[in-house]
Amino acid sequence: MKPARYLLILFAFVSLLLLTTTPSQSQRPTNVEQRVNALLAQMTLEEKLGQLQQLDGEGNGNFRPEHLELIRKGLLGSTLNVRGAQRTNQVQRVAMNESRLKIPVLFGFDVIHGYRTIFPIPLGEAASWDPSLAERSTAVAAQEANNVGVRWTFAPMVDIARDPRWGRITEGAGEDPYLGAAFARARVRGFQGNDYSAPDKVLACAKHWVAYGAAEGGRDYNTTDLSENTLREIYFPPFKAAVDAGVGTLMSSFNAINGVPASANAFTLTKVLRDEWKFDGFVVSDYTAVRELINHGLVGNEQDAAAAALNAGVEMEMVSRSYNTFGPKLLEQKRLSMATIDEAVRRILRIKFRLGLFDNPYTDEAREPNALLRPESIRLAREIAGRSMVLLKNDRETLPLNKSVSSIAVIGPLADDRRAPLGWWAGDGKEENTVTPLAGIRAKVSSQTKVGYAKGCEVKDDSTAGFQEAVNLAKGSDVAIVFVGETADMVGEAASRSSLDLPGRQLELVQAIHGTGKPTIVVLVNGRPLSIGWIVNNAPAILESWMGGTESGNAIADILFGDVNPGAKLPVTFPRTVGQVPIYYNHMNTGRPPEAENRYTSKYLDAPWTPLFPFGFGLSYTNFKITNLQLSAPPIQADGTLTVSVDVENVGKRAGDEVVQLYIRDVVATMTRPVKELKGFQRVTLQPGEKRRVTFVLDREQLGFWNREMRYVVEPGEFRVMVGSSSADVIEAKFEVAG
Ligand code: BGC
Known about the structure:
The chain is of the alpha/beta class. It is about 30% helix and about 20% strand. The strands form seven sheets. A six-stranded mixed beta sheet has the order 11-16-15-14-12-13, sandwiched between helices. A five-stranded parallel beta sheet has the order 4-3-2-1-10. Strands 20-19-24-25 form a four-stranded antiparallel beta sheet. It starts with a helix and ends with a strand. Bound molecules: beta-D-glucopyranose. Beta-D-glucopyranose (BGC) binds near residues 110 and 493.
């Protein structure tokens, strides 16, 4: 054979070998790592620091020319608030065509509970106790957001919140780590799918890492002081669930934790996140949180702030510019190493590659017009809102109302308000798309029904001038429905309240309407637990509608008139008075648990120790019975599993949903343990008379805790297991973990 032929055969053989060993999907990380490293090797220090910088595009899609200049020079890796397919493409073209290394810009935006189709506030959605709904709503949010050029959402917010004074309680899944973890997982899956480079997915960001929800006094941004056990058992689990579900990024929070601000906290950022959990994505600081290390008193100037945050493990700096400004000097002074900078850049580039940004930096502008408010998205928003609303009281079957009732008085400042249902962080939700309760009711009732409307008062101000009109309307109607609560700007960021009462004159409005003697149904439109004792004692029916999103009014009408049977349960305790806060169901027992007859026990002189509504509470138009609690095989070994099962039966006359909840208590342990801890739940739909066996499995993951040596252990001894329809309504059994 001629040498040329040899060469040809050799070439064919090598090509075949290469072809058959092309990296498969599962090997993709290696490929990504190679691309990251190749790029990193070409970057100047300034370009590296540029990747660590995120700047605010100044809202409304306006893009400051100096930011474009930074992108051109490769000095800006990410923006927030820049959106719209056209706008993001325009900005991206500068990065792709005019910058030296053509590293695409990552566009972030707060898509919390919907982009244009707005779903219930996350606290409300958690009340559905159905994480699959959260997965579906975040999938719609991702699809809409991606189509307008947003590739990264600052969500899910997975902060546990035990203090309803804190306005941001509205953004999370409530007070419980187990429920919170389930929703965190679902939301990450919904936003990211299996592959967040897909054209209908976005990169997610679990925030705010960590313990932001424990702000002292419920005052936003305030400091926190928590034991490591409390961090690991209460505040970490939803983040762990998000990381395990593959979340690409986390956001470091504003607060300090035990004296070290979260945005410079090596324990949480490096030891836990990187070393223990093996997180390989990146952390972005919250808005100017790096510079705020100065106010915390951790550092005296911005240069030191940069060193503290970057060395602790915050890779991207949002809005303040300490890394960029002081990075070179810190490097020179050896207070920052090139290895640290490279690691930060590597993490950010890794995510940009995984997001497919390099291969697919632009958004197809043709898709945008058909991407938003699709009929199926609107239908889903209505369904989820209906499944999130909690029936708090329903005496003498006041609800559901008959659709052909002859006259209805729709009253209250939130009866026809288009903004409140969208809640805080309403993405690019538009008031014009909101269905108000008044519109929902009008669309629902028969054409003979007279629906009157009177506002009565505003949410916040002091005027009662509208009361008379509202009272007259109620007097002339068969039934009154009063919509009271909070405005959107009373919840969310920087919206802490020192009172949980209804603001303004709203309670008096309810009292005036109730005084007419007409059946007065109260619908709450609000973003946090409220202390509504008078209403609970007097109104025959109360519906917690939260801030239910675009379709809120339709969903409310579906429930009020019985087309939807409410089945949601509170994901957070409702206190009787703000003075009981913090009040949460999974508290420790104390040495002197409250006893009515014994003064020297843990309680108040001037208020009961029990909440207004317990965690897990919610009614239905039908009734359920939970019976026949059985355990598989007690005792079990510390690493064994236990099966717990109950019968749940619909003993009423309508089809409906029950959320069967399982709690445990470790009776004696080397650390005090909560009186109850949620460790399982299932929402089941049952026809009248239908009975179903519901089964839970408990294992090490549910039975253990972090002991004094900070080891996760299951200790031998007695456990109680409780199953029921709320944290305060359970049947129970015991079992032993063998020693
Ligand atoms: C909030 C974050 C949000 C960020 C960007 C901050 O003020 O705390 O939750 O993602 O702004 O808008």
